[in-house]
Amino acid sequence: MDAEDAEERAEILSMQELMDLYTPVKGQIEARLGEFRHIWETASDEDLFRELVFCLLTPQSKARTCWKAVQRLDRKCMMSTGGSSEIQEELVGVRFNRRKADYICRARLMFCETSLRATVAGFASPATAREWLVENVMGLGYKEASHFLRNIGLGEDLAILDRHILKNLVLLGVIDEVPGSPTKRIYLEIEKKMEAFSRKAEIPMGQLDLLLWYKEAGEVFK
Known about the structure:
Endonuclease III, domain 1, Endonuclease Iii, domain 2, 69% helix, 2 domains, mainly alpha, disordered N terminus
């Protein structure tokens, strides 16, 4: 075996290594998913909009940083009343904060007269809700829409294909490489491959996503 082969082999994540990672945090992951489901059962439109804002902020930014920004906006009542420039000032550490502040204002306008809960609940499945969100909410791609639905307890079977998850799907042999900017077709193809791996590993999709996120971040978060 030459050095290149040895390096390739070292980068493979085996099923046993995955299970060794999963077993100690399985309960924590299940509890977090239970918290997400509880959000849908009890949340107001304002609570759901807070989660939507979080997912609008997350592309190319750290989740903890985005959540702190959401908490600041919430504390200052800016999600419901703040102008774009005011909101932007609160997005400290969030990349593309000017654009994302505009996304928040546009989403707020969209749902000021239409209930976000009623809109999402009106679809036959999380997948169809995701399609509508991607087509109608500026700033939401498939990853962000999937993330939002999972975080409000409706999208556990949807894949949240951020760079961390994609990298680990390569290590697991699920996909050959991380796509630069996945189209809808590529996203859905990878989602199907992840679903197949989830069944093989006997780790539900929602748990698999949080497990791989935990592997990278060292915590089970959002």
